[in-house]
Automatic annotation (TrEMBL):
It comes from Ceratosolen solmsi marchali. The keyword Acyltransferase applies. GO terms for biological process: triglyceride biosynthetic process. Keywords: Acyltransferase, Endoplasmic reticulum, Membrane, Transferase, Transmembrane, Transmembrane helix. This is diacylglycerol O-acyltransferase. The chain crosses the membrane at residues 60-77, 137-158, 164-185, 286-305. It is found in: Endoplasmic reticulum membrane. The lineage of its organism: Eukaryota, Metazoa, Ecdysozoa, Arthropoda, Hexapoda. The gene is LOC105364922. Its main location: endoplasmic reticulum.
Length: 317
């Protein structure tokens, strides 16, 4: 009875509905706006709390980049004050030519000029194989010997003239010969596939049993065959803009050096090409490569080379 009496004595109140709460907040907001101080604040969670829902941190990112930029400018000024302006494009020509301080020769340029020899030898061997002057077995042996000599040539020359090469000159010469090795390997393999395919077709055609035909049947067969050939040729010309190159018409210097200069390690008889040369695109890419290389070389000369030289100096007592 006592507990029930206490509950009966307590006056229970109903909670305000959401609509009523919104009305109260709206009334408070209207009352604040009516003040002459023109209030601009409103109740919300702090931006530094996770409950605020704020996820746009571009300001912090820009602030970080600003600090990095200021720090980089400070290091740039310190470098200029300590070392001066060390950027000299002529020095890169000496480095890339392989010239050393104690030598007057340019061995890297000589090795680059020699790189045309194995390329031409590969072409001559392929010419001999296509004309049946060289058989398949000895031809493959010649190719293997040519590629092995090409790979070993820069290593032997650098070992013999170890004081005549600069580090960068020797490095990019070895890289060039490694790329040439991969390119010529693909060139030999693709031409071998084409040569074997042509031989297999000729062999299969020679084994076909010839049937006796009358003059009329022979004439109609020739007309149909010529019509099919002309249709195929027309399709090749119309589809690609010009006739596709067939083996062994690809065995020439222009085709080989186009492949050598192309940015690929896989040889094809017919590379995909556009109908015209995009001159603006080509000029932009050339400028990007030239300017980018100059920037990288300048950074090397201005920052990295002085730091490396200073690190080689022993500590003074």
């Amino acid at each position: 009875m006592t507990a029930s009496g206490e509950h009966e004595g307590v006056r229970l109140r109903r909670t305000k509905s959401a609509t009523r709460a919104e009305e109260i907040q709206k009334a408070e907001r209207m009352a604040r706006r009516s003040q002459p101080d023109k209030p601009c604040h409103r109740p919300r969670d702090s931006l530094f709390s996770w409950s605020s829902g704020f996820d746009n941190f571009k300001g912090f990112v820009n602030w970080g980049f600003l600090l990095l930029g200021i720090g980089g400018i400070r290091l740039l000024l310190e470098n200029f004050i300590k070392y001066g302006i060390r950027v000299d494009p002529r020095q890169w020509l000496f480095f890339l030519s392989g010239k050393n301080d104690a030598d007057e020769e340019h061995p890297s340029i000589l090795l680059i000029c020699y790189s045309t020899v194995p390329v031409v030898l590969s072409l001559l061997i392929e010419k001999g194989l296509s004309m049946n002057i060289i058989t398949h077995g000895p031809g493959m042996v010649f190719h293997v010997v040519n590629l092995i000599v090409m790979v070993l040539m820069p290593l032997v020359v650098i070992h013999v003239k170890e004081t005549g090469f600069s580090l960068i000159g020797a490095m990019y010469v070895c890289m060039l010969y490694a790329i040439l090795f991969l390119k010529l390997w693909s060139y030999v393999q693709v031409n071998m596939w084409c040569r074997l395919s042509v031989k297999s077709k000729n062999t299969s055609q020679g084994r076909i049993r010839r049937q006796s035909l009358s003059y009329t049947d022979l004439h109609s067969t020739d007309v149909k065959q010529n019509g099919c050939d002309s249709d195929e040729t027309r399709h090749e010309i119309d589809g690609g803009g010009k006739a596709l190159v067939q083996y062994p018409d690809n065995l020439n210097l222009s085709d080989l050096y186009y492949y050598i200069l192309a940015p690929t390690l896989c040889y094809e008889l017919n590379f995909p090409r556009t109908q015209r040369i995009r001159k603006r695109f080509l000029i932009k890419r050339i400028l990007e490569v030239v300017v980018g290389c100059q920037v990288v070389m300048s950074l090397f000369q201005q920052w990295m080379i002085p730091s490396v030289k200073n690190s080689l100096i022993p500590f003074s007592m």
